[in-house]
Design a protein that fits this description.
One of its GO terms (molecular function) is DNA binding. This protein is mainly α. 67% of the residues lie in helices and 0% in strands.
Length: 130
């Protein structure tokens, strides 16, 4: 298997895992597509266990990385699986979220919103270690 196929295979696996996580957050298909910047047809294909159909670009891979990072941070902060999956859909009143849920912020679709959400959730991990 050459590097191109391996890269396509790995990115497809990453996309499947990221979609599983986002679905556990109770995101709508539209939210999942906006967070990962994928088409509705790619969402359906991957949700049915098929491959994405094409290689993902750097922006999409970064989005997948942030979703995986958010999930890893939440698993460190919370021991209860319900909180790990529920936190992204909980209203947050801190200055950044302004009464919105992390899922709503990430669903704006721009990479900066996803990155900033990741940073805020990563900070919870640091605060929990004090």
């Amino acid at each position: 298997m050459n590097g191109e196929h391996l890269s396509k295979e790995r990115s497809s696996i990453g996309l499947k895992v990221a979609l599983r996580i986002i679905n556990a957050w109770q995101a709508t298909p539209q939210q999942a597509c906006r967070i990962l910047r994928i088409s509705r047809s790619t969402y359906r294909r991957v949700s049915q266990g098929r491959t994405a159909g094409r290689r993902l670009d750097l922006d999409q891979l970064q989005r997948i990385g942030f979703v995986l990072g958010i999930h890893a941070s939440l698993r460190t902060v919370f021991s209860n699986q319900s909180n790990v999956h529920g936190f992204p859909n909980c209203t947050n009143d801190n200055d950044f979220f302004e009464g919105r849920t992390p899922l709503e912020v990430m669903s704006q679709g721009n990479l900066i919103s996803i990155y900033e959400t990741y940073k805020r959730i990563e900070l919870l991990k640091t605060l929990g270690q004090r």
